[in-house]
Amino acid sequence: MYKVFINDKPIIITSSLKKENIFPVYNFKNILFDEVLNKLKNDDIKGIKLISSDIETDWLIFLKNMKVIPAAGGLVLNQKKEVLFIYRNNFWDLPKGKIEKGESIETAGIREVEEECSIFNLSIKKKLITTYHIYFYKGIKLKETHWFLMTSDFDKPLVPQTEEGITEVCFKNEKEIDEALKNTFANIKLVYDAYKKA
Asked: The domain at 68-197 falls in which architecture?
């Protein structure tokens, strides 16, 4: 199954015929990409489910409709098991960014977290999840973000990367995380859920 978000509305590409949500269901083979985008512009539709008989082939067909931007980021735990959050554009988020040419996803993930938060001594524990979201900037782009569970014992002040629009960086405990998740993106909730299940 692939789940791609446009403004927090999911496009779910799956082989499962099980009805588990209220989204309209279409056969992948019978729908045009532009139709999918137009349907999601309708306020009444909260998401869309596309049934595929060959997920991997259909996923590659889906990707041909846009430019894929690979990115990497981290869900970072400190020694108290608190989670590192950034605040940007009035939303709580996790640090992430584009992978540079020739860079591995792991190296990019660590570099982006360091740059956005001024935190160091990062260590990757494992890969958590890959998330996808479509945005519109000089055409249709799909950001494919590889998320890692990271830890750090860094105990100096954290500094937000203001030139990237980040205004706050902090570690949050479980109660604060619950509050932050009320003002975040659907993909960030997926990352946090993947961490909790890990």
From this structure: Alpha-Beta Complex (3.90)
